[in-house]
Every structure is written in structure tokens, then in C-alpha cells.
Amino acid sequence: MAETHLQEGDKAPNFSGQDQDGQTIALNDFQGSKLILFFYPRDNTPGCTAEACSLRDHYRELQESGYKMLGVSADSEKKHQNFRAKYKLPFPLLADTEKETIKAYGVWGPKKFMGREFNGILRTTFVIDEQGMIERIIKKVKTRNHAAQILGG
Asked: Domain range holding 101?
């Protein structure tokens, strides 16, 4: 399985795209804040829903620890709107339909599911510091306990 080419200590690649409401979001918007940038395969699937809900349920704790949060998948703005509303997610979701941000972070690659191989988003979380440097990369995301995984360092 391919993994990101980025490493802890690297400068986070710049990105810009539309969130679920058509608002432009860029890495620069988070300058001076710690950012949890999580890439996930698809809205409304069991693992992605568990991951997003773990982050939602611990959102206040994460904010109190100084984190802002942004989810990214290749789903459309409309799908993101529905996903966000259905699960009352308090953070924006970037609609990276052209996969520019996904590829910049090196999280597009071969996956296996039910004996089938295909290309898709490799579930990965980047913790980016106030200066835009990658502090941590979590490649083995525990979907149901993702917030604890981040907070537990």
C-alpha cells in the first residue's frame, strides 16, 4: 500500500478549495493555529462516519487543546452538506473533487477491499502546527477512537 511521501517536520503543502457551503478554505486560513487535517474515503460509510463522529464528540476537547479541524474527501459539496447536517459535524469538510489536495498530501493510492484492488483515499490524518509544519502523521487511524488517538499524542 502506497503511503504519503510527506514526513513529520515537513512544511505542509498549501491547498485551497471549497467547503460544503462553497466557501473557499486554504491552509493560510489556519496560520497561527494547530490544524487537524483528516483525509477520509467517503461520506456516509461506516468507518468514515465513526471517525467523523469521534472527532465531533470530542470537538470541544480538541478546541481546548488549541486545534482547528478540517475533513477532506473527494465527495461533492452537496454530499458534504448532507453528511455534515445528518451527523451535526461542527467542522468544515473540503470537497476535493479534483483530488488536488489529496494528491498534494500523497494520500491517493492502491487499496484493497473484499479482495478487490483499486485506487482511493488512504485514511490519513496530519497534525499541522501554528507555523504550517507537519507535527504528526497518523496513518493507522482508529476510526472509533480517533480523537483519543490525536489527544493521546
From this structure: 16-151
